[in-house]
Hints:
Blueprint: H1 2-31, H2 39-49, E1 53-62, E2 65-74, E3 77-84, E4 90-96
Antiparallel strand pairs: 1-2, 2-3, 3-4
Amino acid sequence: MKYRRTIIALGLAMPVSIAGAVLSTFAASATSLPPKITMSEARALALKTFPGEIMKAELEREGGGLRYSFDMRQGRQWREVGVDAMTGGIVENTREHSYPKD
């Protein structure tokens, strides 16, 4: 009876661990895909969200995906605007108290 429970438990655990491996492989390959949105398109979206001057722009991996990050200034006000590199959606629009340091 003890061996039967072990075999049943292993039988139930195997599909879960295989599914986890497949999902982690998919997630790893998803982040290695090239961005669908160009830097130029992302800049236009960021400027539409916060009209100002882009002081720093970069493509970065964050949260398992790719995003463009823009440090922007309008007068004395600073913002960080993030644009999803796959969808073009705005994923961040936060006020910064001063120019972000490197």
